[in-house]
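Exercise 7. Given the encoded structure of a 322-residue chain, write a plausible sequence.
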């Protein structure tokens, strides 16, 4: 698989990465989850599934793994796999995130699965926890899910601490964005400075055929050396669900000779500013299909499928934690 440098971070990453948001905890906001886990979702079963997917990904050249403190036991599963497979630090790029806390207690019917707090005490607490789990494998540390006008954008203490972590431990600093105004947040992140130097080295954003609106802002970020990671390329399962697919999309995928999920991932790979596109696969069949993605085989007009940001994010908010 093709690899490249993630912007000015210096980190080597594969074009397709594996995200663990749906692998590290029993419930996640995506469609079709009951079908994907017929054997159950105990911690042991989820760990086994994660190990299996990571083995397949590694065998096919995937060299970026994305996790977060709030992904249940996601960090621990990744760390255990890295140790069990005796993988040297730096040979696979690992990114994690701080700012959300998992509170679902491994229950699929939990009223609340995660809570958000982007402040200095949370950063200190979660950095210590992530560092203890992932240790020298932690390459990219991201602020989790910033929205426009969030106080963290003006919290000088947070960004100064992140700059210090970069200087002391060599971890690179990134941020993820969310919501219908992602572009505003991206541009605000590009303006952040610590001692006159840019602090954000990578940005992770939602981009897919239904919600491509952050594209110009991500291109601008890429142009100034910021790495770009694409998440939710399948729109939380909507771009793999026949009842959710827009008219004409399946036909376009057939003409390209790809299954719909690989074609949707190909759309992101076709964007010249996209460094890594995350697969959220939770089964071997899904991952093998995603690995067929090829940006060179995508030439459709994405405007045919675009939704307004408001309608897209409103629909996303309605998705159940399955």
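Solution.
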């Amino acid at each position: 698989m093709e690899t490249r440098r993630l912007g000015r971070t210096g980190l080597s990453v594969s074009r397709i990465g594996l995200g663990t948001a749906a692998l590290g905890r029993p419930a996640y906001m995506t469609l079709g989850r009951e079908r994907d886990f017929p054997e159950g979702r105990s911690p042991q079963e989820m760990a086994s599934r994660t190990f299996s997917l990571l083995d397949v990904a590694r065998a096919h050249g995937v060299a970026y793994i994305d996790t977060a403190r709030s992904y249940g036991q996601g960090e621990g599963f990744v760390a255990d796999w890295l140790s069990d497979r005796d993988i040297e630090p730096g040979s696979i790029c690992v990114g994690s995130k701080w700012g959300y806390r998992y509170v679902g207690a491994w229950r699929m019917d939990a009223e609340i699965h995660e809570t958000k707090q982007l402040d200095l005490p949370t950063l200190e607490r979660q950095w210590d926890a992530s560092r203890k789990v992932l240790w020298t494998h932690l390459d990219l540390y991201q602020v989790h899910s910033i929205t426009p006008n969030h106080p963290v954008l003006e919290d000088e203490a947070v960004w100064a601490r992140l700059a210090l972590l970069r200087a002391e431990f060599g971890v690179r600093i990134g941020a993820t964005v969310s919501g219908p105004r992602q572009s505003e947040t991206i541009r605000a992140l590009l303006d952040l400075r610590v001692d006159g130097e840019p602090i954000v080295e990578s940005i992770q954003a939602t981009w897919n055929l239904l919600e491509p609106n952050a594209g110009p802002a991500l291109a601008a970020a890429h142009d100034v050396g910021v790495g770009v990671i694409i998440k939710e390329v399948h729109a939380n399962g909507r771009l793999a669900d026949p009842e959710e697919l827009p008219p004409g999309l399946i036909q376009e995928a057939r003409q390209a000779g790809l299954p719909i999920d690989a074609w949707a991932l190909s759309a992101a790979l076709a964007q010249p500013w996209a460094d890594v596109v995350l697969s959220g696969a939770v089964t071997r069949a899904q991952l093998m299909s995603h690995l067929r993605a090829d940006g060179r085989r995508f030439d459709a007009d994405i405007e045919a499928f675009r939704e307004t940001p408001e309608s897209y994010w409103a629909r996303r908010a309605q998705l159940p934690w399955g």
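Remark. The chain has eleven helices and 14 strands. Students should compare their own answers with the one above.
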